[in-house]
Amino acid sequence: MNKFLFLFWLLTAAPLWAQDSLATAEKKTVTYTENDIRIDQNSVVIPTKFPSDYKEKYKDSDFQYEVQLEEKSLWDKFKEWLAYWFRKIFGLSDMNVSKNYVEITLKVIAALIVIYVIYLIVKIILNKEGQWVFGKSTTKKIIHDDDIEKNLVHVDFEKLIAQTLKEGNNRLAVRYYYLWVLKRMSEKSIIEWHADKTNTDYVYEIQSSDLRSDFQYLSYLYNYIWYGEFEMTEPTFRHAKKAFETTIQSLRL
User: Fold this and answer.
1) How high is the pLDDT of residue 6?
2) Where are the domains of the chain?
3) How far is residue 182 CA from its own chain's centroid?
4) Which of these, 33, 68, 180, 249, could form a disulfide with 157 (CB 3.0-4.6 Å)?
5) Cα–Cα distance measured from residue 158 to residue 180, given in angstroms and rounded to the nearest whole number
6) What is the DSSP letter of 138?
7) Residue 244 C-beta-side C-alpha neighbours within 13 Å
8) How far apart are CA 244 and CA 214, in angstroms?
9) pTM value > 0.70
10) Average pLDDT of span 34-60
């Protein structure tokens, strides 16, 4: 019984002792006087100043702690759109793979365009006429700004063609044959010669159905041989030569 009373007294008295101890500790204060402060009078304190351009040293990417998202251009958006459709059409599993395909495709297209432009420039330089660039349409103008075509009525095409064949220029001979046909039809008042007219214009002026059919075929041969980008064979030239001479002979009657 006495043991229980002692234990109860010990538990109730312990908090009171702790409060007294804390109160005593709180009342203790530390007071300093001038004698306790030691002043170093021998040392010189020099204040440090930052240089005026110190911020310039911290503009590198290593000191950029905020991620700044760049605004996408229209070209970037277009490539992303292509990548989306590439992935959808070809069933690509990854968007990055699709973007790589887009980059390769665009580079190939750009290279082909550059090659084609260079090809056109070289051909224009080598071809004095330069008219092949615009196709082989039957509505192409026959007349060009040179002395022969300006003076079509006064040209002796028979001698001119003979000289051209002697030089081995069969393609140019075909051109002269065609102009010779136009001269013959103009002399017989079948067509009205004008430098700005096209071969289609002359087709509408020809009244004879047979001659109109022959002229359309000769126009086809002329466009095919003169404006065509191929090496003309000897059989092809002989066939064209015969067709032109036949029509020219018929116009002499």
Assistant:
1) 55
2) 74-126, 133-250
3) 44
4) 180
5) 8
6) T
7) 26
8) 9
9) no
10) 69
